[in-house]
Amino acid sequence: MHHSDYPLSEVPLSARKGLLSTSAVLLGFTFFTATMWAGGTLGQAFSIGQLLWIILLGNLLLGAYAATLAYIACKSGLNSVLMGRFCFGEKGSKLSDFILGFTQIGWYAWGTATIAVVLVRTTGMPEWLEIPLMVLFGFGFCITAMIGYKGMDWLSRFAVPAMMMFILISLFTGLVDARGFAGLSQKTPTESMGVAAAITVIIGTFISGGTQATNWSRFAKSPKIAVIATMAAFFVGNGLMVLTGALGTMIYQQADIVDVLIAQGFVTIAVLMLFLNIWTTQDNTIYNFAVAGCNLLRTEKRRLVTVGGAAIGTVLAVGGMYNLLIPFLVLLGTFIPPMGGVIMADFWLKHKGRYPALESAQLPDFNRRGLAAYALGAGAAYVSPLLPPLVGVVVAAGSYAVLLRVNHATLGDSLPSTAKQ
């Protein structure tokens, strides 16, 4: 713990990690309860044949987006909030810091409350223990994030194989109960949903996480490792979560694997799955908040920001505000992907695939082209009836490309006051 995971600088080559380490951390991040709930909505609306190719396509698009950002992160050694300084400006990047940080603290509150409520319900403990458990888990789950990448790596190397084994046990048992694929093919949808809407659900549930997965892909030893690890997490791992939720709903009318395992009689495994599933996402979530907070405040004290974020998330959980935050956080999921579009266009079109060293770079206070492109992408995503996250990325990237060719005074970079003197 001699450093704080380089919150304000590039990750040096000496600190880079291999494929196993990078994959474990990213897979731990994507093993997420809310993704299974999203899969549950798909399980009610499609036959097994339709469901499989929709899950395949949706997660392929999600994985491609996250892997593209992972490549840039590894090449530059920077995460999304630090790359935001190039495409939004020194002060303009604070917008992305706030949006990214706020979504993560909201999800942390949700996860903290969820594990307390589910644990009380599952074990039959008295309800008055919910609040003390929220406080315990709210601060307990941030310990590995405080340690940093190494702490999350240790946890994920144990948790990911264990969760994978639990999931496979549950899926095998479910297929036996459903009489295999022949039995699943006889189940008819009970709800209605369009294919485009279903793909939007798959992408939308975790594309905000894909935008911030650069916090770990920048630690990869090579771009190839970063891309493979990210695809493993967001195509395979996230796809498995969606499939698990969908099959659980089709067979047991339960999307969450914890409820499914209990229905199958695996109570001990269900409790272990609950802890590991929530913990490996919670520490990644609060780590994301800390990184955004460090860039917002321009401080190296990542561990202090981590504890502060955990405290805020715990207060929100105890106050019951997490119930009100979820719809807003899902809405913000529409506004986060355009940031990735601007980052991609800025890296390849303006900087020709190589950022200058952040410490010596002369950056404007506000990159007006980047901010304008983001606003156009976010607006397009908000009004788009078809695949809003992808529309936001494409419009933001395309707008930035066009604006780079426009030579107009109002679109010029706003230079810092020191540069004007």
Provide structural commentary.
- Keywords: Membrane, Transmembrane, Transmembrane helix.
- The chain crosses the membrane at residues 20-39, 51-74, 95-119, 131-149, 158-175, 195-213, 225-251, 257-279, 304-322, 328-349, 370-403.
- This protein is an all-alpha fold and 421 residues long.
- The chain has a single domain (14-409), classed as Hydantoin permease.
- It has 20 helices and no strands.
- Residues 417-421 have low confidence and may be disordered.
CATH superfamily: Hydantoin permease
Into which percent range does the helicity of residues fall? over 70%
Count of structural domains: 1
Largest beta-sheet details: none
Which structural class do the helices and strands define? mainly alpha
**Overall shape:** globular
Q: Helical segment tally?
A: 20
Instruction: Tell me the CATH architecture.
Output: Orthogonal Bundle
Over all CA atoms, what is the radius of gyration?
Answer: 21 Å
What do the pLDDT scores average to?
A: 91
The span between the termini is 41 Å
CATH class: Mainly Alpha
The helix/strand series, from N terminus to C terminus, equals: HHHHHHHHHHHHHHHHHHHH
CATH overall fold name: Hydantoin permease
| Beta strand count | 0
* Percent of residues in β-strands: under 5%
Q: Name the poorly predicted regions.
A: 417-421
Tell me the layout of helices and strands.
Elements: H1 19-30, H2 33-43, H3 48-76, H4 80-88, H5 93-123, H6 130-140, H7 143-147, H8 149-177, H9 180-185, H10 195-212, H11 214-217, H12 223-252, H13 257-263, H14 267-297, H15 302-318, H16 322-335, H17 337-350, H18 368-383, H19 388-404, H20 417-420
